[in-house]
């Protein structure tokens, strides 16, 4: 049983590839390496270099490898940057998803796990985000992910009576951290963990982007979830689709509690042994005050739970980054 992972050479995708292999599902990777790394793809895993915007390339990959399902991660994922680059964001995330769906239909591939985002909710005014909360994205990135969900939903409706009716689910999450493999680490120039790690390695003082948010310590609060838990949930969703079990259109992969940026900084100092007082920088545009989601539906259907403490998240990420030096 073969699954295509778009964006499978990226930080999250590479962990999903390993989790698929561990579950007895054969992974195939499509990635244009715009932010991924060929070295993150395990030896022996087929790797097709190219963009999901190239519909013909994707269809060939689906047919050549007799793919039964797709885990779709490829896209432009930086909420703050998307405010300055909305057209690029929509091209990659909306047009890319549309082209993928078209290739899947042509190749008779009818199972899809969509890697969405908690950014579809914008700035919720409730303590815990549930899947049925109104969607009010605060950035072009969040908007593009929501449109991606709509595209997939509409394609499922359109194909419902066909021989290869699309079955799908969307997994919504926010900050993915840590490492489940010492050879794979987060290389994003925008995510909090790698920004702090690089600053500490270079002897610079890490920065907090804004300390005037409407939160207890003034820094924004997010779900921080370990990448190995995220990978396991994607595989569980794929298995549920393959076996024909009932599945929700969307699941939150939430922590239930959330952590503030300042709490993360404190853990960074504890785990690395490097004492520092973070500098305070201006807010990034498009960043909401707080997004913390419940994971109850995912716990029920996908065995979702947080298996790592904040110190374990930091330690696994720090050790993987140190190993790459």
UniProtKB/TrEMBL annotation:
Similarity remark: Belongs to the NAD(P)-dependent epimerase/dehydratase family.
Keyword tRNA-binding: no
UniProt gene name: galE
Enzyme Commission numbers on file: 5.1.3.2
Pfam family, one: Epimerase
Organism listed in the record: Microbacterium yannicii
EC category name: isomerase
Keyword Isomerase: yes
Domain NAD-dependent epimerase/dehydratase: 3-254
Protein name listed in UniProt: UDP-glucose 4-epimerase
Catalysed reactions, semicolon-separated: UDP-alpha-D-glucose = UDP-alpha-D-galactose
């Amino acid at each position: 049983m073969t699954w295509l992972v778009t964006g499978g050479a990226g930080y999250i995708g590479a962990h999903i590839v390993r989790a698929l292999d561990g579950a007895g599902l054969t992974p195939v990777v499509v990635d244009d390496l715009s932010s991924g790394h060929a070295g993150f793809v395990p030896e022996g895993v087929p790797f097709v270099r190219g963009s999901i915007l190239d519909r013909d390339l994707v269809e060939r990959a689906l047919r050549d490898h007799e793919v039964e399902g797709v885990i779709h991660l490829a896209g432009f994922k930086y909420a703050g940057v998307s405010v300055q680059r909305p057209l690029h964001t929509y091209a990659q995330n909306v047009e890319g998803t549309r082209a993928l769906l078209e290739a899947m239909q042509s190749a008779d591939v009818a199972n899809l796990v969509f890697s969405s985002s908690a950014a579809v909710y914008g700035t919720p005014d409730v303590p815990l985000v549930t899947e049925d909360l109104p969607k009010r994205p605060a950035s072009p990135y969040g908007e593009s992910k929501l449109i991606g969900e709509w595209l997939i939903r509409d394609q499922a409706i359109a194909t419902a009576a066909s021989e290869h009716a699309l079955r799908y689910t969307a997994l919504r999450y926010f900050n993915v951290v840590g490492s489940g493999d010492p050879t794979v680490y987060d290389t994003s120039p925008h995510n909090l963990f790698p920004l702090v790690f690089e600053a500490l390695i270079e002897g610079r003082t890490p920065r907090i982007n804004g300390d005037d948010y409407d939160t207890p310590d003034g820094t924004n609060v997010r779900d921080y979830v370990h990448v190995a838990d995220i990978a396991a949930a994607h595989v569980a969703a794929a298995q549920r689709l393959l076996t024909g079990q009932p599945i929700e259109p969307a699941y939150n992969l939430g922590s239930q509690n959330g952590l503030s940026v300042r709490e993360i900084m404190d853990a960074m100092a504890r785990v690395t042994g490097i004492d520092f007082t973070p500098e305070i920088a201006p807010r990034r545009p498009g960043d909401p005050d707080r997004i913390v989601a419940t994971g109850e539906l995912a716990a029920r259907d996908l065995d979702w739970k947080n298996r790592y403490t904040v110190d374990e998240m930091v330690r696994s990420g720090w050790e993987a980054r140190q190993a790459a030096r």
